[in-house]
Amino acid sequence: MDNARLEIPPPENERVNRFPPGSAERERLADELKRQYGQRLEIPLCIGGREVRTGRIGRAVCPHEHGHVLAEYHQAGEEEYRQAIVAALAAREQWARLSWSDRAAIFLRAAELVSGKYRFVLNAATMLNQSKNPHEAEIDAVAELADFLRFNVWFMQRIYADQPQAHAPGSWNRSCYRPLEGFVFAVSPFNFTSIAGNLASAPALMGNVVVWKPASASVLSNFILMEVFREAGLPDGVINFVPGPGPLAGRMALESAHLAGVHYTGSTEVFSSLWKSIGGRIRGYRSYPRLVGETGGKNFVFVHPSADLDAAAVALARGAFEYQGQKCSAVSRAYVAESCWPALWRRLEPLIGGIHRDMGDPRDFAFFNAVISQASFDQAMAAVRRARQSGCARVIAGGGGDDRIGYFVEPTVILTEDPLYATMLEELFLPVLTVHVFPDERWEETLRLCDSSTPYALTGALFASERAVIARTLEQLSHAAGNFYVNDKPTGAVVGQQPFGGARASGTNDKAGSFLNLLRWTSPQTIKENFSPPHEFRYPFMRAGD
Ligand code: NAD
């Protein structure tokens, strides 16, 4: 392995297109949306560089028009997952031997393809298959993904440059950052194209080989990503793209003695079950697998009487309802001091009304689109029904839905006097915000409640202008969120600016988009070389003649 230092300058965050009416970029995107909407792609698996067709077909549809099929994708079965592991292991030695600057070049080239040639293709696929508006698609499938790829190369360089500082006279110590011994199982969620790309590419950049199980609901954009990696020069077998049933993929990967790591993002339940199975068979692996998981959340916003209420209203509207509340960082519970609630609601209600009126098809550039699936739609309707029947909660905005054409759920607000009401505790991952209004004098008590009432700790935010309140809240909630925001919405983390991840039931907090994550994909070896080894057995303290 070649760990020599190369000076790659720190990257800049990718610029973001705004798509104003009449702009050339808007027109290009509209054309690409039309093209992809009008085709029916066939998506094969990619194992060891081979396109594999199993005939077990899944359908990639538009959530906002579920009768419209964008692509038919082949699903892996036992045999294909087995083959993917074999192909990954076969590629391992050569990939690990390639110099790190060669690996860097492949992923830097991929970043250029994402932000250049494939920009509109990835945006359109993410809009159509994952039901995102142009802004949400652009900041995900293009900007964040390009940032992950470029920043990770820079972080890798910093890790490799970290070498032992001390050397005894006549000797030399160095650290060699080996990839893990085996393959990494990357399992991605539906909601971010960038996360999917990062889950597969970050371990590969560090010299690992990967079996990548994408989410069924985002196969289209994820397949295009696989094409990008190949076009960028990724050797066959380094990343193997194998959509299929999650439990089967999990069983096959976890049964292999060569499982070296899991790079996962998705629900807490699935990650916990993977961890448990791995624990149960731990003696069967060659090494202790590295387990990296970013999981669920129940993200909160606190509004103090000293808050700027215009800013708090915008943050709640954006934080709770952008991408239909399906960002891992989305706000789903708010604690508002009683004295400012009427004024805050006067500001927030019309914003939610505007979002509601701007609900529709991403092809029309509607701001607010559909939720991902029938199951998500049903879950939203069930939460609304429960709230309506409950004696301690009221639906004060939205609450309706229509799944005839697409899975449309209105932006919904539930007001509850019970801070332990179900939707103050459970992750819904939907456009449903629950608000608890509390007496101003119970500020401290409510902070403690927020800290202890859910198992999660992903994101949180505080709106306040009094410095002592800000300081005290940060102290009180220091373990309640991995990403905390003061006077800002708790969504929209930017690679290189706010490394992202939560602790407790929200994950292992290995901070995607930072060197901390990349550290998990290397197993350093320390090499001491002695240029003048001792020829004398005896130590000075020993008795003469011994
Ligand atoms: P999910 O848990 O339903 O699925 C995630 C992935 O796991 C999918 O690819 C799925 O097919 C796979 N899977 C399911 N069962 C499996 C098994 N037994 N073995 C192996 N793989 C299996 O999650 P989702 O609906 O795609 O995404 C939403 C969830 O992801 C939410 O809980 C959200 O909070 C979380 N999320 C967290 C972050 C974060 O950074 N913390 C980011 C995005 C999403």
Description of the molecule:
The structure is a single chain. α3 (100-115) crosses α7. The protein is 39% helix and 21% strand. It folds into two domains: 26-295 and 507-524, Aldehyde Dehydrogenase, Chain A, domain 1; 299-486, Aldehyde Dehydrogenase, Chain A, domain 2 (3-Layer(aba) Sandwich). The chain is globular, with a radius of gyration of 25 Å. The longest helix is centred in the N-terminal third of the chain and has 28 residues, at 134-161. It has helices at residues 24-37, 78-97, 100-115, 119-130, 134-161, 193-205, 219-231, 246-255, 268-280, 309-321, 341-357, 374-389, 422-425, 443-453, 467-476, 515-519; strands at residues 41-43, 45-47, 50-52, 57-62, 65-74, 171-179, 183-187, 209-213, 239-241, 259-265, 290-294, 299-303, 331-337, 393-397, 401-402, 408-409, 412-416, 432-438, 456-457, 459-463, 483-486, 503-504, 522-530. The mean pLDDT is 97. The two termini are 44 Å apart. It binds nicotinamide-adenine-dinucleotide. The site of nicotinamide-adenine-dinucleotide has 30 residues, from α8 and α9. The site of nicotinamide-adenine-dinucleotide (NAD) has 30 residues, from α8 and α9.
